[in-house]
Amino acid sequence: MPKSKRDKKISLTKTAKKGLESKQSLIEELRKCVDIYKNLFIFSVANMRNSKLKDIRTAWKHSRFFFGKNKVMMVAIGKGTTDEYKDNLHKVGKHLRGEVGVLFTNKTKDEVKEYFSHFKEMDYARAGNQAQMDITLDEGPLEQFPHSMEPQLRQLGLPTALKKGVVTLLKDHGVCKEGDTLTPEQARILKLFGIEMAEFKVQIKCMWNSETCEFENFAAEEESMQEDEEDAE
Predict the structure, then answer these.
(1) d(CA 109, CA 154)
(2) How far is CA 68 from CA 9, 15, 23, 64, in A?
């Protein structure tokens, strides 16, 4: 009887070794950047989109970005005063939580904050995002869609039918209310109708200067600015 392929044993030794080498390489690369660049910034990303981050990387070719693998990056710069790579770097490590990245650059604090405060781009919301406004579709013909799409629209919960070969919304339809957590169907409808609700933006959380080894936290400053914006509204 032939041996089943499912019974084949795979050695994880090479895989584990490759993973360790990859982590060690990242640690070395990060430490090299600490030595080369004047400033290190930690940034967080709202409504992460790889394509948008790629645009930033392209515009900032003079600098280095690292995104993901927070635990490995924390090991590289140090978790505390006893194992930090350079003075005060462990304070940076405390901010390596969640969807954050590291920027190494010779640009000044003002230049970095100026650029990222203006880099905001809209994109389509995804399931799980919060609706930013009420959206209601008006009754009537939906001539932007071919007749072949009518069943798909109906499957998404839209009250549609074909009238003389034209996709038609039979009555007004509320897609979402502000503050709703979007379902996959709602997110798909918004995209089909070209309604963008997700704002990709980068927030600079803190910085460390290699020449002075000084650490600066911007989190409190950002919270104050957000409160001022909410009060203005």
Answers:
(1) 52
(2) 31, 20, 12, 14
Task: Taking the CA atoms of 178, 101, 209 and 83 in sequence, report the sign of the dihedral they define.
Answer: positive
The length of the chain in residues reads: 233
CA distance 200 to 125: 10
Based on the number of CB atoms within 10 Å of its own CB, is 105 exposed (0-12), middle (13-18) or buried (19 or more)?
buried
What's the mean per-residue pLDDT of the chain?
84
Residue 9: the pLDDT is: 46
Residue in this structure with the two tokens 């009250």, named with its chain if needed: 159
What CA–CA distance (Å, rounded) separates 54 from 59? 9
Torsion-angle region of residue 161: left (phi > 0), alpha (psi -120 to 50) or beta? beta
Reported pTM: 0.69
Tokens of residue 150, six digits = 């009518």
pLDDT of 198 reads 83
Q: How far apart are CA 150 and CA 146, in angstroms?
A: 8
Q: How far is CA 58 from CA 26, 34, 64, 65, in A?
A: 21, 21, 10, 11
Question: What is the distance in angstroms between the CA of the first residue and the CA of the last residue of the chain?
Answer: 75
